Amino acid sequence: MPLEVHFEKKLPSYTLCADFSAEEEPLAILGPSGSGKSMTLRCVAGLEHPDRGTIALDGRTLFDSNQRIGIPARRREIGLLFQHYALFPHLSVAENIAFGMKASSGADRGVRVRRLLSDVHLEGFENRLPRELSGGEQQRVALARALAIEPQALLLDEPLSALDTFLRSQVEQQLILTLAQFRRPALYVTHTMEEAYRIAPKILVLSKGKVAAFGSREQIFRHPPTLEVALLTGLKNFSRTRVVSAGKIEALDWNCVVCCDVEASTRPAYVGIRAHHIRFASSPDEANCANTFPCWLVRTSEAPFRVTVYLRLHSPEGEHHHLQAEITKENWLHLKDQPQPWRVLLPPIDVLVLAS
Amino acid sequence: MATDLSPVWLSLETSITATIITLVLGTSAALWRAHRRGIGPAFIDGIFLLPLVLPPTVVGFILLVIFGRNGPLGRLLLHFGATVVFSWPATVIAAAVVSFPLMYLSVRAALEQLDPALLQAGRTLGASEWRIFRRIALPLAWPGILAGTILAFARALGEFGATLMLAGSIPGKTETIPIAIYISVEAGEMHQAIVWSLIDVSISLAMIAGMYYWTHLQNPRAQAAHR
């Protein structure tokens, strides 16, 4: 693999154990705040030094605690896009981009700066100062500057987090195109699961400094190994469990037995279902299917095109909800006129079986 | 009134030389100290700042002990046939020592306010530490360095106590404006004292005006407005 990262670093509240490799494509590093994502990038970039382990890029050792190798950041040829861009405020856009270019003739530099600027759709911005640019423009200048050193790998530290939502999706599309053209290892740190999924074919999930999951994005979202990873990938409904028999699990928090398609080889600690997988039985046929339970509405939360309904199972009494389901507006308009109890359906194929 | 202008030239030569020395030493010390933690650096900080809090006469006395015939540095210099005490270099040393803390504090504050991400960005872009200092840290810390330079120059220009202790008041050799004023007043030559004072005020005002004008030219926002 082009980028091999295997190291440990002691941090104030936990020990960061980064253990992964990246191919010549984007790899998303997903995790909550303080999970060690940024520190991992900083160690790869050479701005911080691990306590133990190795980091290698294309077979070139960048760090090795046993051989006492620690290549300084300036010789690693790794581009880093900072969360707040870190553009040099006193230098023009062109000077910022040219800052890291290898020594070459002045005219050639100008041509290359112009080409990089046109790659990020900022033609004619050469003489502006960073303060005269919008957040999205600053982000793209920072990207052009990181690419100007012709890096062997690119590290992006939550590059969209400082942008407002409206701008974010636009800049994100641009970033996906740029990363597709880069064809080198690119580590993309984010705490947003949708962003991770859209940006990278493979995802590394970090939690308290440990690798909680590492694999293709489909695998991570379809079969999260643990409750923690499931929650990070947006799981809303989960329950503690007790195994009854093969394919049948008792959900202790939901007071029911749930059928699932997965053979639970190890003892599952939790069972879960994503909010958008929950359905409602409309016909009597469906009402007799497996995993169909009576439910009552506790409350709703409406978004422009979708509605989240909070449901209580088995009895209408009680204040807290057991499940939250996300359904389209159309389905909601149909459902809300039906007499309660409704019949909630948890499709066995969508039931997640999770380790603790 | 025929006036010997030597105290003016002496004061300017002394202050400018002392300011250049503190600029180099103060900036180096601040660079070393910025972003460094621990007991050692904190202890050295105390020594760096001592001239600011000690009475100038005490500073002068300590310098006299160090550079005197029996002092450690004085004896070393005597070995090479040089004496510092009661010579022009003594006025420079006294002025440099008392103005050093002001330069050091200003530059250090300016460097510590720099966003560390900017320096790190420079490193990931392949720049050497010297290039990062010259192209990023120095231009961005410039207002602080300039402020330190003005303060240090003003302090050097007004230096009296330590200078009198270490350099004495030899007309044409170590008699700077503040000392000339003191001697004039002591001799009852009030007119002479007023002339020196007015010259001192003019130099200070011209210096501050020049520095402000220069800062304005260096300011990126002002540059942007001219574009």
Structure description:
The complex is a heterodimer of chains A (about 350) and B (about 230). Chain A is of the alpha+beta class. Chain A is about 25% helix and about 35% strand. Chain A has 10 helices and 21 strands. Chain A has helices at about 35-45, 95-100, 105-120, 135-150, 165-180, 195-200, 215-220, 225-230, 285, 330-335; strands at about 5-10, 15-20, 25-30, 50-55, 60-65, 70, 80, 155, 185-190, 200-205, 210-215, 235-245, 250, 255-260, 270-275, 280, 290-300, 305-315, 325-330, 340-345, 350-355. In chain A, α3 (about 105-120) packs across α4 (about 135-150). The longest helix of chain A is centred in the middle third of the chain and has 18 residues, at about 165-180. The two termini of chain A are about 30 Å apart. Chain B has a single domain, classed as MetI-like fold. Chain B has helices at about 5-35, 40-55, 55-65, 70-80, 90-110, 115-125, 130-155, 160-165, 175-185, 190-220, 220-225. Chain B starts with 5 loop residues before the first helix and ends with a helix. The model of chain B has no long low-confidence stretch (mean pLDDT about 90). At the A-B interface, β7 and α4 of A face α6 and α7 of B.
